Amino acid sequence: MNIKTTSLLLTAALTFSAPNAFAQNDLGGILRFEEAPGVMEFSGQLTARPLQMDALLEQGYSPDAAQAAREHAAGLVDEGLIEYVEATDEYVFTLAVDSDENSQINELMNSGLFEYVEPNWLCYPSRTPNDPKFGQQWHHNKMNSKDAWDYTTGDANFIAGWVDTGVDLQHEDLKDHLLSGYNSVNRKTQANGGDVSDINGHGTNTGGCIGAVGDNGKGLAGINWTVKLLPVRCSNSSGGSAYLNDITDGLRWCVDNGAKTASASYGGVNSSSAGTTGNYIKGQGGLCFWSSGNEYTQINGYDHAGVIIVGSSGQSDTKSGFSNYGAFVDVVAPGEGIWTTKNSSSNNSYSSVSGTSFSCPLTNGVCALMWAANPSLTNDEVEQMLFDTCKDIESAGEDNKTGHGRVDAGAAVAMASGGVTDFTLIVPNSLTAGTSLTLIAEGVAPGTAVSFYYSLRGTGATWVGSLGIFLEMKNAVFSGSASADAAGQATYSRVIPTRGAGRDVWIQAAMVGDITQVEQRYIN
C-alpha cells in the first residue's frame, strides 16, 4: 500500500527534561490525519504504541516509574481493545463513543505516554490497471508508473499533443481520449476535412504510449489513463516521411490549440528550426519533446534549450545501442520492446515496437501526468523536476549518453505533487553535550513536515506508522519536527542532554513515505 497521498502535518515536539511519573509532555502542536478516499480511509479504529522502556529511561524515568507509565498507557486504550500485538507492542482499539480519530489521537498523544497513536487505516490496493496486456509492458515497472498512479492517473481536462502519421480513430484503447485533430500537410483541421487517420501505423503506436486508456479491461495502459489526446498528422505518404516544416507547424498547432505537451517522433531535431519551434512552445507555456534518433551515432554541435530530446534505454537500464547520443540528449526512457496500440482494421490490435520514437511520447506522457498532479506548475518547473528525478544509469550527473538519466515517472509525479526526492540529512561533524544541535533536512518540498529521530542503540528497524516508513535505527525516539522553507530545507534545533556525553548517537529524518540516510556521531 502506497501512502504518499496521505497528508500529515507533524508540528509537535517532545520535551526532553526529566519528567515525574505520568507527567505530560508538552507537544506544542496538533497531529492532523486526513483521509485519502480510495487509498486510505478512517475505519473507526486506532493503533497506539506506548513509549518504550528505553525511551522512558532516556527521558529520566526511574525503572519503576517507567513501568508504571507503560501500564497507565495500556489502561488508557483498554476500553474497546480489539487486539494487542505483542511482537510490536501495539494496541488496536475502537474509537471512544462521541469522539473522532483526530480528537482521540491528540488526547492520547498529549498524555506524553505514547510513541505514536494513529488511525488503523482502511487501506486499498495500489493502482494496477486491469488491462490484460499490462503484464507485458515492462517499461511501467522500470519507470515506476504504479507509484505515479498512486498520485494521479491523469486529468481529463489536460491536453497532450503529438505529431506523427495520424491515429487509428476507432482504436478501442484510444478513441475515448481523442480530440478533433489537424493535418499539417494540408493545413486543415479535422473539423474542416483534414485527414488524421493513420496512413502508416507509427502514429497509433506513439499515441498509445502517451494515453492508451488504462483500467478499462482492454488491451494495455498508457502512462496516462485519463487524458485528452490531440492528434496531428504530418505526412500524407504511406512511408510516413514528412517535411520538417509540417512537423514544426504541427507542434506549434498543438500548443496553440490547448496542448501543454507536444512531441515529435521523427528525425530533424538537429535542425535550427526544431530549436526555434521548441522556444516558441516554451514561450506559450508548453513543453516540446523530440526523439534523438536511432542511427547508433554520436551527434555533436547543437543542444536546443527549448526542446526536451529523448533517447532510448532498455530493460537492463542502459542506453539502447541504437539510440543516438551526445550533449544534445536531455533524458532517456524505455524504448525497446514497448507494447502499445497498433493501427488495424479491427481497431483492437497491439504490438511490440522499439526505438526512440516510443521513448519520446512516454516522456511526453510523464510530464502530462506531472501537470495532472499539480496544474499550477510552470513549464520550467515541470522540466526541471523531470530532470531532477531521473535515475542515473551512466556517469553520475548529466552525461552525453543519457543526459540527466532515465525518466522515473513515480519520482517525477511525487515531486510534482509535493513529495520528496534526494532527501538528505545534514548533521554537524562534532557534537557536544549541553550545547545546541542544529539538524537540516534538504530536498524537501516547501511546507512539508519533516520529523527528526535519534537512537542510542544503533542501526536496526523502527516502524513509524504515521509516516508509513521503517527508520533504519533500533528503538528510535522522536525528537521533534519542522516544516521545509521555500528553499526545500527543514531546520530543527535542540539542546543535547548533558547525560549524553561519551555516547554514540544515530540520527535520521523522515517524512510521509521517505527517509534520509542515518548519521552516526559521538557526543563529546
The structural class is alpha+beta
The dominant shape is elongated
Strand order of the largest sheet: 11-10-12-9-13-14-15-16
- Helical content, roughly? 10-25%
* DSSP summary, beta strand count: 28
**Rg for CA atoms:** 27 Å
Domain count: 3
**Proper CATH architecture of the largest domain:** 3-Layer(aba) Sandwich
Question: How far apart lie the N and C ends?
Answer: 42 Å
- Beta-strand percentage? 25-35%
Number of helical elements? 11
- CATH homologous superfamily grouping of the largest domain: Peptidase S8/S53 domain
Low-confidence stretches: 1-28
* Overall pLDDT: 88
CATH class identity of the largest domain: Alpha Beta
For this structure, the CATH topology of the largest domain is Rossmann fold
Q: Describe the largest sheet.
A: 8 strands, mixed
Structure description:
The chain is an alpha+beta fold and 524 residues long. The chain folds into 3 domains: 1-125, no CATH class; 134-416, 3-Layer(aba) Sandwich (Rossmann fold), CATH 3.40.50.200; 420-524, Sandwich (Immunoglobulin-like), CATH 2.60.40. The chain is built from 11 helices and 28 strands. It has helices spanning 53-58, 63-76, 101-109, 138-142, 145-149, 202-211, 244-256, 272-283, 356-373, 379-388, 409-416, and strands at residues 8-9, 32-33, 40-41, 45-50, 81-85, 90-94, 114-119, 122-123, 154-164, 182-183, 188-189, 226-233, 261-264, 287-291, 307-313, 331-334, 338-342, 349-353, 424-426, 436-442, 449-455, 459-464, 469-473, 477-483, 490-495, 504-511, 514-515, 519-522. The strands form 8 sheets. It has an 8-stranded mixed β-sheet with strand order 11-10-12-9-13-14-15-16, with helices on both faces. A hairpin with a 4-residue loop joins β5 (81-85) and β6 (90-94). α7 packs parallel to α8 and α10 packs across α11 (409-416). The protein is elongated. It starts with 7 loop residues before the first strand and ends with a strand. The relative contact order is 0.11.
